[in-house]
Amino acid sequence: MTLTFQLDPQIGPALRDDVLALWADVSNAGGAVGFVPPVTTEDIRPELVRHLAAMTEGRTRLLVGRDEEGAVAATAFFTYNQHRLQKHYIWLYTVMVHPRYQGKGYGRELMAAAADAARAFDGIEAIRLTCRGGTGADRFYAACGYKEVGRVPGAIRVAPGDDRDDITMLLPVA
């Protein structure tokens, strides 16, 4: 089974709730997507609302991966740079695959679909993303072709006494 990807889907209550549920499930399974477990969809809702507002303003785009039943199984948000000297690359945020699908290659499918989408964006030459050290995400992204281009030691405080590196990675797409 493979995922079916859609860029810029119509956002309605069902998709919004599905993305919230995915985000909570990924976070509660230990995924490094901006929260530390335990979290609820209500904890995440304000962050999703910010993403949705940026989408309305044309600053952010959503890529959704659906399983064969049509359920949301994966997402990633693209965010355009607002600085005039950095408009040639795009940021990839909140890269998620539902825990029940991890280990099935869906993460690689999501990253390939994100790269394909970015190649079609006018003027975009690369994708940048950050990931939390100590999770193995940097190895996953490297296996998808990304190169580490920066690291800030201890920049992410997961809990008192648990600081992680903030790792910046880059994938040329032009």
* Largest sheet geometry: 7 strands, mixed
Strand content: 25-35%
- Report Rg: 15 Å
Weakly predicted, low-confidence segments: none
Order of helices and strands: EHHEEEHEHEE
The overall strand count is: 7
User: Helical amount among residues, as a percent range?
Assistant: 25-40%
Q: Compute the number of helices.
A: 4
Strand order of the largest sheet: 1-2-3-4-5-7-6
Instruction: Name the average pLDDT.
Output: 97
Question: What is the rounded distance between the termini?
Answer: 30 Å
The geometry reads as globular
The chain-level structural class is: alpha+beta
Task: Describe the overall structure.
- With 174 residues, this protein is of the alpha+beta class.
- It has helices at residues 13-28, 41-56, 106-119, 137-143; strands spanning 4-7, 60-66, 72-80, 89-97, 126-132, 147-159, 162-172.
- The chain has a 7-stranded mixed beta sheet with strand order 1-2-3-4-5-7-6, sandwiched between helices.
- Helix 1 (13-28) crosses helix 2.
- It is globular, with a radius of gyration of 15 Å.
- The relative contact order is 0.15.
